[in-house]
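We emphasize that the prediction below concerns an isolated chain of 190 residues; any contacts that depend on oligomerization or on bound cofactors are therefore not represented. The input was used exactly as deposited, without trimming of termini.
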Amino acid sequence: LTPSGPPPRTGLVFQPGARVDPRAYVPLLSRIAAEGYLVVVVKQPLGIAFTAVGAPGWIMEAHPEIDRWALGGHSLGGVAASSYAADHPAAVDGLLLWASYPATSLAGREDLQVTSVSGSRDGLAQPSDIEDSRADLPADTTFVGVDGAVHADFGDYGPQPGDGTRTITHAEAQDQIAAASVALLAALTP
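Result of the prediction step, given as a token string:
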């Protein structure tokens, strides 16, 4: 997804959640691209992020015009993104977690800007899971809680078994998710 206007200097490689069609994220990620950022959504084999953990490498290589890179992902996609960030510290400047948390500790990565966005009514990545991840993220991580949002608010794929019940509209949740995501990318932009 490319913005109109000046060529972007900051990019986001986004890993979808498990077995979620990558197109389900395009409406929300298009809003982020429209703010001036290159956004690349990974199409994972079998719809599982761990089958495409290395995808950010070839994507970043294909876009040498981008100066700063963030990796992001929803749910299991965020776990995959955090794994790549842990293994490639020189290549990744930011990490965007949507209803997700890292697989391994990134606490010592003071050079990595991290934003964790979560929903208070999420039945799959519950608020307690997000709280427990604090110790595995850099001390200056920005945590954004979207009050009333559920796991399915991070994409456009409909209800999900085991999820909570939202108390705000899908549009209201996505407004807050987009704003938090853009704020991370703006902080990375030279």
